[in-house]
Amino acid sequence: MSDVQTYQQSGEAQFGDYVALLKPRVMSLVVFTALVGLLVAPVGVHPVVGFAAILFIALGAGASGALNMWWDADIDAVMNRTKTRPVPAGKVQAGEALGLGMALSGIAVVMLALSANLFAAGLLAFTIFFYAVVYSMWLKRLTPQNIVIGGAAGAFPPMIGWAVATGGVSVESALMFGLIFMWTPPHFWALALFMKEDYHKAGVPMLTVTHGRAETRRQILIYTVLLAPVSIWAALTTIGGPFTLAVAVVLNAIFLKGAYDIWKRPEAQAEGDKYAVEKTFFKFSLAYLFLHFAAFLVEALLKTYGLGGWA
């Protein structure tokens, strides 16, 4: 277990400190993709049920964030990107983060079961467990494949949203899962390319630390190539249509070009502060995922007017 007891309270915690424990930026992505999964499902849900379901999915995501911050406080303290988080900064005690994470986990799962269905609640419970235990406590410090396998935790929300509406899974929800799962490695490895020293100081076996920048750039290209067919396949299913396919083609062309640019550059050019290509790729990766899921929503709206989908 992380030696989180070394972090002492430096002052009275503010409301914003507890909000920060929930990783609101990550939560926003979870909420958006879960909402898309719910809205593009072939079965409609009552607006009140849908609102409650998304709220409890968001709470589950926040619970995962709090548990992650509790466990990772020791490595967060030595990384520039994370040292100001509430626990390592001494704003919130480790026990409070653990208690909040456990309490929100229980509330989120039980209330999703009551408001939606047991299957969706079970998926949410597994997602919290996977992120807090399988990824945070096991994979993150053990293997350079941490972000590959651990990426599944961030890929479940649209599947949970779909399950809220349908009570199960399908090819479409599996492909939404696959889209996020395959997107996660190049997204985080691009970040790791210009944050390598952080992971090195923290002793986290990120691919950049264990295999070097050159191999990381090669893996980014490989995963980006593998991501493209998943994206196209999703656009060809019942949640897609001509508009979604056009968006997917354009986004993948840009993403593949960015991955190629990262891969082809000599290692000497990637030293120092010359990370413009990696930073551009990382920023676009955020837009890539958002625009994909936004396209699913637009396609669903077009279908209501008889303009979208595949005939």
Automatic annotation (TrEMBL):
GO MF annotations, alphabetized: protoheme IX farnesyltransferase activity
Membrane topology, record value: Multi-pass membrane protein
Source taxon at top rank: Bacteria
Pfam families for the chain: UbiA
Keywords: Cell membrane, Heme biosynthesis, Membrane, Transferase, Transmembrane, Transmembrane helix
Entry EC no(s): 2.5.1.141
Family matches, as InterPro entries: Protohaem_IX_farnesylTrfase (IPR006369), UbiA_prenyltransferase (IPR000537), UbiA_prenylTrfase_CS (IPR030470), UbiA_sf (IPR044878)
UniProt keyword Membrane present: yes
Predominant location category: membrane
This protein's pathway: Porphyrin-containing compound metabolism; heme O biosynthesis; heme O from protoheme: step 1/1
Any single biological process term in GO: heme O biosynthetic process
Transmembrane segments: 26-45, 51-71, 92-112, 118-135, 147-168, 174-194, 220-236, 242-260, 281-302
An example Gene Ontology CC term for this record: plasma membrane
Localization, UniProt: Cell membrane
Protein's UniProt keywords contain Electron transport: no
Reactions accelerated catalytically: heme b + (2E,6E)-farnesyl diphosphate + H2O = Fe(II)-heme o + diphosphate
PANTHER family for the chain: 4-HYDROXYBENZOATE SOLANESYLTRANSFERASE, PROTOHEME IX FARNESYLTRANSFERASE, MITOCHONDRIAL
Quaternary data: Interacts with CtaA.
Family from the record: Belongs to the UbiA prenyltransferase family. Protoheme IX farnesyltransferase subfamily.
Function: Converts heme B (protoheme IX) to heme O by substitution of the vinyl group on carbon 2 of heme B porphyrin ring with a hydroxyethyl farnesyl side group.
Further comment: Carbon 2 of the heme B porphyrin ring is defined according to the Fischer nomenclature.
Protein name: Protoheme IX farnesyltransferase
